[in-house]
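Exercise: predict the fold of this chain.
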Amino acid sequence: MAFTIRRDVSLEALNTFGIAARARCFARIETIEDLQALRERPEWADGPRLILGGGSNLLFTRDFDGLVAHVALTGRDYLGDDGDHHLVSACAGENWDAFVRHTLREAWPGLENLALIPGSVGAAPVQNIGAYGVELVERFAWLEFFDLATGRVARMNADACGFAYRDSAFKRELRGRVVITRVVFRLPKRWEPRIGYGDVRAMLEEQAIDRPTALDVADVVTAIRRAKLPDPAVIGNAGSFFKNPIVTSPVFDAIRACEPNAVGYPQADGCVKLAAAWLIDRCGWRGHSLPGASGRAAVHDRQALVLVNRGGATGAEVLALASAIAESVAARFGVALEPEPVIV
């Protein structure tokens, strides 16, 4: 199909919050050649631009008065090994969970703790996704990207990506400058399960699995996520809306002095990662919406870290709720909450 740019396109089906928003111009990117062609079109230079992946980490607060480029590059490949690891690649438009399941079917373990995270492969390094004791950076080899200024494809290693907790250079200095086209993963041949998280360990024990396979871990993680988190296909959401804040040890001790049951995870640098869900829950938000508002934007009733669109919510309503939550947590605990999704 010839490359085209469409006008006045709905983005509601392209963001997991299900927010009704429209793009003035819209292009679906299926090949590198599409990216080359896009740069030559007048719409490219006319107004703001947004690179859109799976839409799972995004909140639209208004229509987008510019060009939205939806990255839909597909393809998977086995690149061999480097001695101790399998090298496996996936194009940016591949569904993340489907790719994880593919690696497990091929007996390439390592991504099982990241099962059922919504979104695309290309979005995974942007967020440096992580869950149940594993972060993407641990399994990352390199990625390929399209430089929007030069029109060239190049490779980037982990150092250049600037990975941090739920963060990367793609959310900072490289935002809007490059398009991730393919990601390559290093998956260990000598695999050991990561089952340190209490929920994972408890479910394995409940199922009498004392020597779990990678598929066992993926199935348990999937079951836990389905039990705790709402399905975006059923009720709009972007998963965890806030990052777990990291504070100094004295700050955590002060919180513990007032709240002995405060949840925190010691970090290698001596700081403590707090459980944002616990903070929000203690402020009484779980299952509630902003007083006096429509109630269409709410905190999920099973997981306080997840904000949901009960139907017809606007992005502004979700953002107002998030702001009120952050203000209440700051007032009670003196801790700042930072949103995970990109807010447009």
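Check your answer against the key: The longest strand covers residues 178-188.
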